[in-house]
Amino acid sequence: MKTQTLRQEKLKSIHLDAEGHFVKLILHKNHVNKYNMYNQVGLVAVNVIGDRLDTPYDPLDPDPLKNVDSLVQGYMNPNSSNGPVWGRINKPDYISRMDDLAFDMYQDPETAALIRKLDDRKREAVQQERYDYAKKLTAVISDLYKVGEKLGRYEVEKKKAVELEDYDLAMEKKRQGDEFRLYVYKQLDIQETTGTRWAPPPLPPIVTDHHRQPPLPRHQEEERRTPPLLSPIRQQLSPREEDTPSVMSPRKDDDVDDRPLPALNKRSPEAEQETVESPRDNSEAAGFVIEVFGEDLVQHAYSKQWKYRQEAMENLERELSSDTAELTSDKDPKTVVKAAVFLIQKGIKDQVFSVFNACLEALRSLVKTYIPRHKIVKSEMSHVAEKTTPPLLAKLGEMAARSRDAATAMIMELAVHKDIKPAGVIADHATRPFKSKHQVAPRMYKSRIEIIEKLLGVLELDSDKPGSLSTGNIMRIVLPALEHTSGDVRDPASRLILELYKKVKDTVRDYLPPDEPATRKNPLYRNLFDGFDKIDGKPTEAERRAQAKAATATSEKAKQAEIAALQAQLQALRDMAGESSKPSNSKPAKEEQVDVDRMCIFCGEKNESFTEEMLDIHYWKSCPMLKRCDHCAQVTEISGVNEHLLTECDSSDKFAQCPRCKEAVLKADLEEHYAANNCSPAKGPRCILCGKTLGKGDEVWSKHLKEDCAPNKARLQQQIVSKAPSQASLRSTRGRGGKTTPLGRGAGKGGRGEEGPCRGDKRTRRGKDENNKSHRDNGN
């Protein structure tokens, strides 16, 4: 009992152990209910479940139970597809979905009959232990349940439209239901599943202009436009009570291998309408094909059985390759080519690989044998390629690898054919952008890029010759691939661009963003530009960074080694100064102490205002013993400029020593300098400023540069007037290390330390002072 809003609904199941022709229902008095004042009873539905007898019931028959005996004998027959009698007596409590009242109420009648037939086949397969076939039938039945409900809705909507006299809507619902039924039966491969076979309907006769029939009435024209249902299925699939066990045809193990899986695709029938050809269009287009190849071959080509279609393609191949053609011996070769192309187009679109492969063999025979044998004009060869290339390119997007490989091989054969290659048909279709507004499937995009990459190896690029590939057309299909969401599409696109770059470098770069740091932030373009650099023989960005890092590390290592060497020299100076200062312990303590931090270690000038920065400025501007190199901007001693230019200067490779005067002269001017005979042989150290020959010793140089050298005085005066260098420039020059060592004044001579003035090292000045002090003490 079920209570809902003061209403009670009762589901009652009654077992009747009897046979009869009618079922009489007597509704007794209803339960007493104060809300049911008029004792109303409602009957919602009645579902009678039973077995129909073979012979209709006859009330005048003296033996009404004779049919029951035959029914029982049928149950007990081991060869019967029905269950045994004890299975009928001990039925389970639940009711099969096909016996439920809702099944016939909401299912399309034809689909319901088909489901019942397949269910019987499934039980029979289980009894025969053909479990693979039973599993297949279970999947098909499950899909048909959904299909039947949708077709039932179409039927209800059609009847409702008829009641409202909206016949346009009724006609539309009828058309939708018929097309959906055809679509589903095709996808589920009902003929193979049920084991039924029938010949395709005869093609309509070819009507010429002088035998044209009169126009049909409007209602007959509408019926003609409506796609016909599968009438053979209706004949084979009768209601359940009229079913008789059918004899299963023997099956081979390899029957299923080349058939498409009978699964219902999730695509809507509306999407399929774009690719499904109208039967009427097929019949009209096949009219001239029948005239060429005969009705038998064409019927096999249009058969719903894949083996018949394969046989048709094989017969077509034999007809085209044979020297003694049977069907086309008296036909015009051009007409034969057009008819063959029509059948080949249909065969290329076939989903069964064996049919497709046989179709490709027919295409090869047409191109390589039939057309050359009959010496047909080359334009017909272009027509063949023009009609077959688009479906072959579409075939590249299939999931089956062998179908893709076969289509690829056929396209490459057509591309290199001597009569097809100049026409440029293959190159034009392969580089034609996709027309879909939505994103193309990754498999289709990847296969298109791969076929272009293969064509790039056999066709010329950007050539004036006909049939060559165009970089612009290729980039128009490759650039959108770089933005595809699938990496399986982006990677082949990048690889194809690199192959193009090997052939036309500047043209490819014109289609890409500029090679800038902002662009290289995108990993895709960074990899592309790195690939370009490798092709050009240049280091990639990562390699350039690694080289710069290695150079910095090497420079830093050399600087550290140089600093360590200078520190070792400084320590040696300190050790020497410590040993020489031992005898000076007896000196009077009142001897004046000199602050070496406030004294120039080169000219000896003392100034209390000398700090580290002020000493640097002094070295740059006012020290008479130092001069800045004109070629490397390093500060060095004037007495050692020649040696600096020949050994330490960054431009030392540009200088050579004059063999006569021993001065450093530019190599470019050396010959002219020596030939001019303006220099005299060197008799001792010579001032590079005034050219005067001096004696040896620091005192001689100090006195000359401070008092006697007029050019030096003028130089100092000019430097004092000029602007002092910035601290940054001083630090940058200091950072050059020990290359500014004053030459000609080693520690062994009691001279200055190895570190140059540009370093500003207090320890160097202190070591110099201590060294000088030790010499003075030893002298005393």
TrEMBL record:
InterPro entries per the UniProt record, alphabetical: ARM-like, ARM-type_fold, CEP104-like, CEP104_N, CEP104_Znf, TOG
Assigned keywords, A-Z: Cell projection, Coiled coil, Cytoplasm, Cytoskeleton, Repeat
SMART domains, per database record: TOG
The keyword Aminoacyl-tRNA synthetase appears for this protein: no
Record region (Disordered): 195-283, 720-780
Domain TOG: residue ranges: 277-541
Any Pfam family the entry gives: CEP104-like_TOG
Compositionally skewed regions (Basic and acidic residues) per UniProt: 208-226, 250-260, 751-780
Regions of compositional bias (Polar residues) in chain numbering: 720-732
Gene Ontology terms: cellular component: centriole; cilium; spindle pole
Protein localization: Cell projection, Cilium; Cytoplasm, Cytoskeleton, Microtubule organizing center, Centrosome, Centriole; Cytoplasm, Cytoskeleton, Spindle pole
Domain of life: Eukaryota
Function, as annotated: Required for ciliogenesis and for structural integrity at the ciliary tip.
Subunit-structure text: Interacts with CCP110 and CEP97. Interacts with ARMC9, TOGARAM1, CCDC66 and CSPP1.
Protein name as catalogued: Centrosomal protein of 104 kDa
Organism: Desmophyllum pertusum
